[in-house]
Amino acid sequence: MIPSAFTYERVHTVDEALASLAANPEAKLIAGGHSLLPLMKMRLAAPAALVDIQAIRNLHGVREVDGQVVIGALTTHAEISAHPVVRSLLPALAEAAAQIGDLQVRNRGTIGGNLAHADPSSDLPAVALAYNATLRGLSPAGEFALPADGFFLGPLTTAMPEGAVLTEIAFDVPPAGTQSVYQKVPHPASGYAVVGVAAVIGTDENGCFNYVRIGVTGAGDVAYRAVAAEAALMGQPPTDEAIQAAAGHAAEDGVMGEDLYASADYRAHLVQVHTARAIRRALP
Amino acid sequence: MSATVFGSQVKRREDPRFITGRGRYTDDVQLPGMLYAAILRSPHAHARIASIDTSKAAQLPGVVRVYTGADLQDRMGTIPTAWLPPESDIKTVAHPALAVDTVRYVGDGVAMVVATDRYTARDALDQIHVRYEVLQAVAEQELAMAPGAPQLHADAPNNIAFHWKVGNATDEVFAQAEVVVRHRIRQQRLVPNPMEPRASAAQYDPSTGELTVWVTSQNPHIHRFILSGVLGVPEHKLRVVATDVGGGFGAKIAVYPDEALVGFAARDLGRPVKWTEDRREHFLATTHGRDQVEDIELAGTRDGTLTAIRVKALANMGAYLSTAAPGVPTILFGLIVPGPYQIPYAGADVYGVFTNTTPTDAYRGAGRPEATYLLERMVDLFAREIGMDPVEVRRKNLIPKDAFPYHNAMGLEYDSGDYHRALNRALEMAGYADFRARQQQLRAAGRYVGVGCTTYVEICGLGPSQVAGAVGFQGGLWESSTVRVHPSGKVTVFTGASPHGQGEETTFAQIVASKLHIPVEDIEVIHGDTARIAMGWGTYGSRTTPVGGSALAVATDRVIEKAKKIAAHMLEVSEADVEFVDGSFQAKGAPQRRASFQDVTLQAYLAWNLPAGVEPGLEASAFYDPANFTYSFGTHLCMVEVDAETGDVTIDRYIAVDDCGRVINPMIAEGQVHGGIVQGIGQALYEGAVYDDQAQLLTGTWMDYAMPKARFFPNFETAFTETPSPHNPLGVKGIGETGTIAATPTVVNAVLDALAPFGVREIPMPLTPQRVWQAIQNGREAE
Ligand SMILES: Cc1cc2nc3c(=O)[nH]c(=O)nc-3n(C[C@H](O)[C@H](O)[C@H](O)COP(=O)(O)OP(=O)(O)OC[C@H]3O[C@@H](n4cnc5c(N)ncnc54)[C@H](O)[C@@H]3O)c2cc1C
Fold it and tell me: Are B686 and B706 contacting, i.e. CB atoms less than 8 angstroms apart?
């Protein structure tokens, strides 16, 4: 497991990072390294240069601003899952981050790397979709702010401009009274999500659903919002039948993937079952 | 023996070294001027090598030499097979260390680079250009035997490596049976995954002509024997060292091309060379385990009596016959098919088949898990067929304790046992009867819980050398031990067994400590170095303690015998009047006349006043050849719940009652049981190597090959019954493999029991959630 030769540079500002990327089209950013290095060791990726952004101070940490929780791209999964603000305002994010890989992975891996890498089995894309996150950063063309909805284009492909640095992720704090959960089926080998469902759910004074956002990851090439299921649930009473019926639509907005572990049919079934379970868990 | 040391939970003495990074593993060997090897492996499952161009690689700065198969074929021997089952028409096809004109599996070695550092060696591999003419490949044994299948070896028509039969079960027996259940079982392929990958380092001393090879081996003397032949280095000039080995599970029994190549290069280049595989390479180039297709028939009567069992098995051997491989699906499998039951007729008919896959060989349990799995699955199917509780079928057919020694239908003599005691104990721990009642209630509420029960017997303590010869093992299976007592009474013990994580540095010290009445701390156990231990056969087949430990017991007794002579002389009494009590030699009836062990050991070396005819020194060796195998047994029970909506299986409880004869260290024995259970459940629920139809390995990393993890399991509830082996001096049997053997059928039967309401009879292993879910769907549709 020895990667091809590469050069290594540590930068201290986003501008330096942009300059290094611009100077060398073969260069890649490295944050926690826990997606990139495995690929390099298998020689599935062979960047000629690594630009280490860990030392960029202002990309670390969690802040609360104007109804949003803004998380620096370099904040680790461990920091996120332990952070009191995240735990109280974005519990599904805390729950998801706590289930990523193992302790070492959570201590190194970053939210920015996770979302920028866009592994179709990553946990965090589902959460970003459910919380209506905005991904902000800098590219050679200037600042960008992209909604999670539309950010994930395919396996390892995002809407982020070439040569860009993702700097922070802003999560909408969901309306008061909503509950949010993350429900995961981990692959027994990799620990990644075979299926992951993030749901933010609100009910009105009659108990009927009045706020529903559902993000699904792992099931196919790319994480998606289960729009059909969301629509089917809105306005419904919180009965088992209503939940079951709505969850039955949860696979419709995605293209189910297939691998040795789970067929497309089974994945669709898991998406439906775990969407229903997520909704039930999120009921007050 | 002092009851306090033998049988007590002495902490593992080797662990501080292992867990603080102070182990001395092969990859830790660092020598001045060391070079590093990397091996180019075939990306194709079957291809002719049209040409190899190594010129670019050879020019890379730091590359010292590039070898190809053509370079080596006249300079070193091929890799042999060391187990040739008799009357099996076995084809010992040539296995060159590097492929010469044909590659036969993905991972087959094609070239070796030796360079000044690992990185250069690895980079150089990418600079070797091989032109392959790709041939049709075949990964499955049934397809490989079919007409028109690609042929791997010219001298093995239809890819048949051997055909071996055993037993007394005839067609007639089955034709006349009241009940016959038939079933097909596929034992999936598994990849042994010790924490330490394979590695080898070698150093040649031109002044003495001595070659030292460090290697991750479970049996360094077997390595020396075989490497001596392959490399043409005489045995007395070849030293093999395997001091600390980080697990093997059978995969480090074999002598591989790689260590031969490293030894060759070290001598050829006159510089030390090291090679360590990476995990990706491990998946491709280290032996795999299991991989059998079995058609089984079990006959019996409606009252629950089992009368006959036979199996036709096709064993996938991979592309070449690995060192011990042919013995696994034959001797270690076929002979134990009737298991712990009084079944008068039994038979096994086994084909070993070549395919374009990684060679298979022993994997923890080796043959015995396969036999136990099929038997225990069949017993459950039989119980279902006649409408009897599966535990009652077992109880009815288990060999009763007064029937020992018992001769099974294959001719094995089971040494001792009390199978019902272990069964009863396990049922009691589990609350079996209550569980059955609760199961009914839960089913009514739409919850699916199940229980699986396995009663097993295992061939341990490999084995009597005469039998080894009779079954075609190209070696002896006795074991050696030397006990060297130093003048101060401290002791160094040398064993030819080769523990690699099992804990014998502790248990062997306990054996000696309890006999000599000295602290465990006063004893050092040395293993794994042919320069320090004259000869030995290594660690596998649950043999280390019954055979190696017995050798040690005999040698220790010889030391005591000699010490007694010296003590008698010192105490001026006759030898018959001396007894060894609590660490002192004393005159019978006059215990005040005594000499401590240390007094005697000192006098043995001072030799100022030894009895006539007694030589100075205090050291004894034993070459212990066991009279028989030992037969561990037990009952495992497992309770599971299946989530019918998703197919997820949760193990609620796991109960293991094992009998390995006398237990030297309950904590270590329990540890062995735990690890074994986990590995056995790994096969049942998680693990499985998959090849595609081009014989490409699809599960080649830990990202897709699911190793069992601690969080998948509940706490195991373990207990031991102790039925001593009557034929070895310690009364011990063997515990290293029992968990693996028992756990797989226990869990699968539990899941199938849970799904009985859906009429599910079979789910192929591993029982992944999708497969379980699919089985439930199919069952629902059939309703
Ligand atoms: C054993 C193991 C198990 C894992 N299990 C899981 C799991 O269960 N669930 C899960 O979601 N993930 C899992 N992961 C992945 C883990 O979460 C990674 O840490 C994460 O996906 C990537 O974050 P990183 O900081 O390590 O990124 P890196 O590996 O450093 O980078 C990944 C990619 O993103 C780019 N990148 C990184 N940061 C930025 C940035 N700020 N701006 C622009 N581009 C950037 C890099 O150039 C690179 O292409 C696992 C990883 C391992 C090794």
Answer: yes
